[in-house]
Design goal:
Length: about 130
């Protein structure tokens, strides 16, 4: 029984088998939803982790970028993107490509984690077949 706003999490392998319940009830996936193989999911998660690690990595160029921002009163950011923003753009492009190639054909939709405060990976099950 959930307490407050806590949600019971169901492991991915149980969701793919239609459990709990197992009788095709409310917890089973829609008919147009194909099983997502673990390799595709792991590839997506590993690539996202790599992009975010790159965004957080300190280097000489990011240090100089910060110093230049301080010297210009952060007005430099009117003209240029930060290293972090460039990496977030790469993440958005990767998510879009993965949705087109892997998730949408299986009746799923991966939401960009930057829209969720970088706190979670949201995968939505689509009710209608892709058109």
């Amino acid at each position: 029984m959930p307490l407050g706003n806590h949600v019971t999490m169901i492991p991915l392998d149980e969701m793919s088998r239609g459990q709990p319940g197992g009788n095709g009830g409310a917890n089973s996936p829609p008919q147009n939803c194909m099983k997502l193989d673990i390799e595709s999911f792991e590839y997506t998660i590993n690539q996202l982790n790599n992009y975010f690690a790159e965004a957080e990595r300190a280097s000489c160029s990011t240090y100089c970028e910060g110093c230049l921002a301080c010297l210009t009163g952060y007005l430099i950011y009117i003209c240029t993107e930060t290293h972090y923003e460039k990496c977030l753009r790469k993440v958005a492009k990767f998510i879009s490509e993965q949705n087109d190639r892997v998730y949408r054909p299986r009746g799923l939709l991966l939401t960009d984690p930057t829209t969720r405060g970088l706190r979670l990976i949201e995968i939505s099950v689509l009710d209608r077949p892709p058109s």
